[in-house]
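Example 326.
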Amino acid sequence: MNKARVYVTRMIPEESINELRKHFEVDVNFEDRALTKAELMIKAKGCDALITLITDTVDGEVLDAIGAQCKVVANYAVGFNNLDVAAAIQRGVILTNTPGVLDDATATHAFTLLLATARRIVEADKYVRDGKWKGWAPMFFIGMDVDRRTLGIAGMGRIGSNIARKAKSFDMKIIYADARRNPQVEKELGATYVDKETLLKESDFLTLHVPLMPETFHYIGEKELQMMKKTAVLVNASRGPVVDEKALLKALQEKQIWGAGLDVFENEPEVLAGLTALDNVIVVPHIASATSETRINMGKIAVNNIIKVLSGQSPETCVNPEVLKK
Ligand code: GLV
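Predicted structure in complex with glyoxylic acid:
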């Protein structure tokens, strides 16, 4: 019997590819760039399963081009806004993601952005490298205190709660807003559930951990930025379009808020002109889960999901369980 065919849209850790090869015929796009939608439609045609990245658009048109034999698309990410869930349900294609294994890395990264922005680390590093440092001075690179300040978390899921746990070691007061309450973090960490307006008004640091969906598009816009403290720092390691980048640029230029640490952008890999000219912003290229162990573990989940589905079992981390019930 012919082996099932798996297409991987870009190189992921070798361990994952080797594991896949034990079971399937595997094609990998080895080019160091994301495929266009048109390329994906051609290259993945005829495959039974795919590993995709957040840079791949998988909608009904793509699924139809790949063919009705395709049973599973395993997204190598926890976020899956690049997948058209309704189109997959309609076609009976199982979609999976990689939750859990990247919580530590992502929360650590968000906290790193918070600390680095508060203490102006990138700006100060550049100052030294540029040979501008003339000696200790009492009034330069004055930053923001983090200890005992209020941390606002938008989205208290796995990653939000992980960052809340880290914040406890800084004795931070934790407030959060979410569509659902999280009794566990309220009990364990004393986090307080607040409405969005209170979150905006009271946070010294506001970190975003909501998924991107119609309800969270531009969750932070001009109106929200105006409600924030002038001393506040915004951290975004969720998805770029959760923040209205133009409104953020204006708020930062006009010192409406104090600073921002950004891992994600509205039109990646483009960064809005103007943002990089500001000292009160740290910009990094969507690397929150980029640690070797995390990326290997993400690969293990994606591969395991494909093995399970292609052997007739349910995957561990399905994002459209409606298909499993069919
Ligand atoms: C990365 O952005 C992810 O969703 O895993």
